[in-house]
Amino acid sequence: xxxxxxxxxxxxxxxxxxxxxxxxxxxxxxxxxxxxxxxxxxxxxxxxxxxxxxxxxxxxxxxxxxxxxxxxxxxxxxxxxxxxxxxxxxxxxxxxxxxxxxxxxxxxxxxxxxxxxxxxxxxxxxxxxxxxxxxxxxxxxxxxxxxxxxxxxxxxxxxxxxxxxxxx
Length: 168
Hints:
Layout lengths: L12 H11 L5 H17 L8 H22 L21 H17 L3 H11 L5 H8 L3 H19 L6
Helix pairs in contact: 1-2, 1-3, 2-3, 4-7, 5-7, 6-7
């Protein structure tokens, strides 16, 4: 009788099954692989001995990660104006609208540049990329309350700096 390899007894034994389960027939196969790896990294970063059922923990963690990714991607289904044909561009009938939009974009970029880097990242990742505050906290290694403070700082600063561009 052959002895099982040492890693087949621990958490690594579930890795192949985890990848196979999520990647099989999934249109987000690369995301499934990322979710499995993130789950493993999360388990190892914390105390693996504290987890009673490693398989259930890894599957739940990967599932949560995939659900978050699907939600993030669903929020980000936008088309750039550059990809639209000119006749498909929205028009306001106002010949100065393009000029005002350009001025607002420049003012927004300048106002963002005045913020600390973390506040810029939090704002852009949340409002442009569609990440939740919890996802941003994990990516930046911050607490959720710190992410919320950075977001409030960014929103207050942008409101103050862009007030002159508000419609009358």
